[in-house]
Design goal:
- Strands 1, 2, 3, 4 and 5 form a 5-stranded antiparallel sheet that branches.
- The protein is built from 3 helices and 5 strands.
- The chain is of the alpha+beta class.
């Protein structure tokens, strides 16, 4: 059957047959292999990127916890925070009385809503200092941003020592 063709024609036919088989093999197998190799390399790069960012997310969560401990937790309702301020005062004070409790003041700035709570208490210097220290160390719902001592004299009577505490809480609005 192939005796009628010369060696040169047989060689060209064999070369053409080899090219056709190569194209078929490429289309059936090798093209998929090359696509999988490319996809594998991109997935490895994404995995490395995610692995390098994982410590960053843990660091961010730790930073958020530190900030919450500095400025107070923002998830609690403002009325509950004011009630907790009064409850803390009742449970942790001796000889200290509430002189004035101002209404809650709100201030909105960009993405944050600031709640301010103002409490005016009276008592002896040592009791007031001890209570302020307890608020600083143990009260988690809000933080003291201002503390001012002053005296008040009414009708030429005995001077009364006051401590005005201002607490603030930050809440993200977006």
């Amino acid at each position: 059957m192939f005796k009628q063709y010369s060696y040169k024609q047989k060689f060209y036919f064999l070369l053409l047959f080899f090219v056709m088989l190569s194209v078929a093999a490429y289309r059936r197998s090798f093209s998929n292999l090359f696509l999988l190799i490319g996809e594998h390399s991109t997935l490895v790069q994404k995995k490395d990127l995610i692995a390098s960012q994982t410590p960053n997310t843990q660091r961010l969560q730790r930073d958020i916890a530190d900030l919450e401990s500095l400025i107070g937790k923002g998830e609690t309702e403002k009325e509950k925070i004011q009630q907790e301020i009064v409850n803390f005062l009742v449970n942790n004070s001796n000889g200290v009385t509430i002189f004035e409790l101002q209404p809650i003041h709100q201030y909105k700035q960009e993405d944050y809503l600031v709640h301010s709570f103002q409490l005016d208490i009276t008592g002896s210097y040592n009791d007031l200092i001890q209570l302020a220290n307890n608020y600083e160390k143990h009260f988690e719902f809000s933080k003291i941003v201002s503390m001012r001592f002053y005296t008040d004299t009414k009708n030429n009577q005995k001077e009364t020592l006051h401590l005005r505490l201002i607490f603030q809480n930050y809440e993200k609005t977006t």
